[in-house]
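[step 3/7] inverse_fold.run input=structure_tokens len=296
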């Protein structure tokens, strides 16, 4: 007999907000399956407010409230049993972040929790990585967001170390990442990967997913360092308008995809990785699984 439950996750990031509605399929004697029922993405760039001005603007608060009201209605229509809403670096750093949470709770009747980088990395790492991880391989998991990037090192199917850095696409676009941060990341990656041979990258985030889709590769095939390097050069050679008109990128993707590619490329270079796998996983998927398994 099969039982189907519906859980939802709301990920309030620095570049966009996402609602994931997931089907959780339980069948006796079989491993629980998680499938996407719906995914809605709203491009509210909160990081632009948080990292440059220090607070979320009235306009974006209103947009957030409207989005949350819509998300609540969608969850009702989908008959979602449980949900969790997490906000990451933008609301974490905006001095009115807690005030925004209270406004949304009052006007949209949705509870949001602001989480730190460590918890964000742990939730992302709790996704279906075990299906990818081979015991004889070492993997560096890299999740590039708008405000922060999470790095997790896995060996023998176990997480060795994890760290969150204040480097993300929105910060990079606004030239708010000092060279010292790049140096810290390089030092950290080299320190923890030097004892391992043939490190493989696993990438997550909207930008690497877009790059993978553009490559036309099959889901179980990786992207090479050579491909990533050539794509970075190609994307960098195009103007913002050309990335929209010629590549068909969304307006809120056409600018951030370049700095994101740079982060993945540097992670590959500093770890010695020659390839990067791009599974369809992220914070939203991690939230659903953590909620289901009682890890949160």
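[step 3/7] decode complete -> sequence:
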């Amino acid at each position: 007999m099969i039982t189907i439950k519906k859980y939802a996750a709301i990920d309030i990031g620095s570049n966009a907000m996402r609602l994931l509605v997931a089907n959780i399929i339980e069948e006796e004697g079989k491993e629980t399956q998680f499938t996407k029922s719906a995914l809605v993405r709203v491009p509210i760039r909160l990081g632009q407010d948080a990292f440059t001005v220090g607070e979320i603007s009235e306009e974006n608060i209103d947009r957030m409230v409207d989005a949350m009201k819509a998300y609540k209605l969608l969850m009702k229509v989908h008959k979602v049993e449980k949900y969790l809403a997490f906000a990451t670096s933008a609301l974490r750093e905006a001095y009115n972040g807690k005030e925004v949470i209270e406004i949304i709770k009052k006007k949209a009747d949705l509870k949001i929790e602001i989480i730190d980088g460590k918890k964000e990395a742990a939730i992302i790492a709790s996704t279906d990585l075990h299906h990818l991880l081979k015991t004889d391989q070492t993997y560096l998991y890299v999740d590039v967001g708008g405000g922060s990037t999470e790095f997790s090192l896995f060996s023998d199917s176990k997480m060795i170390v994890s760290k969150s850095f204040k480097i993300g696409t929105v910060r990079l676009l606004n030239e708010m990442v000092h060279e010292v941060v790049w140096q810290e990341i390089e030092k950290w990656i080299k320190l923890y990967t030097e004892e391992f041979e043939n490190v493989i990258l696993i990438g997550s985030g909207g930008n690497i997913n877009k790059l993978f889709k553009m490559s036309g590769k099959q889901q179980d095939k990786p992207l090479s360092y050579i491909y990533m390097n050539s794509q970075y050069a190609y994307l960098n050679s195009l103007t913002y308008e050309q990335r929209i008109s010629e590549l068909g990128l969304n307006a809120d993707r056409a600018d951030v995809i370049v700095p994101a590619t740079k982060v993945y490329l540097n992670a590959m270079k500093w770890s010695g990785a020659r390839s990067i796998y791009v599974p369809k996983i992220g914070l939203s998927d991690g939230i659903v699984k953590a909620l289901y398994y009682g890890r949160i």
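[step 4/7] annotate
The mean pLDDT is 92.
The longest helix spans residues 58-77.
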